[in-house]
């Protein structure tokens, strides 16, 4: 049985996934025995764009007849055939913020084991948005700032995966956050001192993803409001 299915290049211009794969191939190849990789959006990777026709991370389960819609179907089929214990996904953001893990179900036993095996302390719990969590429950994504991409991080991620496979965990304080809304471009402009992952009184929330170019392109929101879960 495949233990881990690693989905890379869900967004074609985000290089964490391809870089982790390259690092693993050259320095940590033993891990490959338990991991299968899939390049989620090869066309967007080749063009170095987020997506070509529709955002792959917003169209699972919709049956859209676009390039990304067809890729979503292929990935869904792959998950059904392989029945991986855990699905991992890799994202980068142009926003400056702490490394986070993203999941839709913090109570899922496999998800808990992975989070507890990771050196990353902050986890974000999201509601399914026709992203991949719509089709895979045993799911964790990495989301790191572009400025963090280097071999130390890839080694840290390989060590997270190794610890998970060995059934080990890191005993450290962990924080869980939930998305409670979007930060509008007007709010970003009018509120002073907004800093990602630092609570803001005026916003009455913890801002995140401010400075993300991907959201600026979209124009309808500037980031997300978070609430810390207890
Ligand atoms: Zn992404």
Commentary on this structure:
- The longest helix is centred in the first third of the chain and has 16 residues, at 67-82.
- Strands 2-1-3-6-4-5-7-9-8 form a 9-stranded mixed sheet, sandwiched between helices.
- 30% of the residues lie in helices and 23% in strands.
- The chain contains 7 helices and 9 strands.
- Bound molecules: zinc ion.
- Zinc ion binds at residues 10-11, 14, 91.
Strands, helices and their partners?
Blueprint: E1 4-8, H1 16-27, E2 35-39, H2 42-47, H3 67-82, E3 86-93, E4 100-103, H4 109-117, E5 122-125, E6 139-145, H5 151-165, E7 175-183, H6 185-190, E8 206-208, H7 213-218, E9 223-229
Parallel strand pairs: 1-2, 1-3, 3-6, 4-5, 5-7
Antiparallel strand pairs: 4-6, 7-9, 8-9
The structure holds zinc ion.
Proportion of residues in β-strands: 15-25%
Name the shape in a single word.
globular
Largest sheet: 9 strands, mixed
Q: What is the CA-based Rg, rounded?
A: 17 Å
In total, the number of strands is 9
Output the keywords.
binds zinc ion; 230 residues; alpha/beta
Quick recap of the structure?
This protein has helices at residues 16-27, 42-47, 67-82, 109-117, 151-165, 185-190, 213-218, and strands at residues 4-8, 35-39, 86-93, 100-103, 122-125, 139-145, 175-183, 206-208, 223-229. By secondary structure, the chain is α/β, with parallel strands linked by helices.
